[in-house]
Amino acid sequence: MAAQPAKPKTSPKSIKFLFGGLAGMAATVFVQPLDLVKNRMQLSGQGSKAREYKTSLHAVASILRREGVRGIYTGLSAGLLRQATYTTTRLGIYTVLFERMSKADGTPPNFFLKALIGMTAGATGAFVGTPAEVALIRMTSDGRLPPDQRRGYTNVFNALIRITREEGVTTLWRGCIPTMARAVVVNAAQLASYSQSKQGLLDSGYFRDDILCHFCASMISGLVTTAASMPVDIVKTRIQNMRMIDGKPEYKNGLDVLFKVIRKEGFFSLWKGFTPYYARLGPHTVLTFIFLEQMNRFYKVYFLDS
């Protein structure tokens, strides 16, 4: 009998998780300004219909004018920690569950099971990444406040230590429910809208199953995902940035945020920061996979094939 071909060498799970986190962190370096602009726009005009920023470009110009080039990268350390915690945990949970749910003969889980695994992994990763998310929201919003009201965190670790000391350790997980809800919505919307839009493009007869089709499907999926997840995202942002007023929090819960935003700022204010959110979603995913592929290739050449 002919000998069975040897299974190709693959990197260990720990390396896959490490590379996943590092790839997300590398991509964040490029898209951090968009995150900052999105957060500032979601917090602008809080409690009134007047908007601090008319458009995303107006927000960028204002930040550059008031805070300089360094100001556009405020909160980068928190953004990097968020990727290190959220992306690594999500990838780890997804890989473990995917392997557990696969059949003995190697058959992968069906679409709905994959979606459930993705949402579970996303929610778990979001819970682990919430402290970094809280620090990120506060650091990126600080520059819009008067100097005497700024928190003045110097970096993400300073933010985490001060939040724990001044407000209690539970504050690090403030807004974890909407953060986890957003992760579930994003994962569900991305999976469903990508496969549906890809099928629609192929059925139109104008596309083949190639990189152009994948790119267009990704852009449509990003649009649907942004529209679906932004109301949850603004709830998360407002809760994580809120202050105590006369010993009471600004918002009681997520529903209170939604009602107050709609009543005082208008229904469409739930989609404040739509452009930078959408502009960040696509490039961050693309850059993450580019960096991930390069790191995997490097590891294969220098460690597996040597």
Strand content: under 5%
Overall number of strands: 2
Roughly what is the average pLDDT, rounded to an integer?
88
Major sheet description: 2 strands, antiparallel
User: Mind telling me the C-alpha Rg?
Assistant: 21 Å
What characteristics describe this protein?
mainly alpha, two-stranded antiparallel ribbon, 1% strand
Give a topology summary.
Elements: H1 13-43, H2 56-71, H3 76-101, H4 111-141, H5 156-167, H6 176-203, H7 211-241, E1 244-245, E2 248-249, H8 254-265, H9 274-304
Antiparallel strand pairs: 1-2
Q: Could you please describe the fold and organization of this structure?
A:
The two termini are 30 Å apart. α3 packs antiparallel against α4 (111-141) and α4 (111-141) crosses α6 (176-203). With 306 residues, the protein is an all-alpha fold. The protein is globular and about 60 Å long. 71% of the residues lie in helices and 1% in strands. A hairpin with a 2-residue loop joins β1 (244-245) and β2. It has a two-stranded antiparallel sheet with strand order 1-2. 37% of the residues are buried.
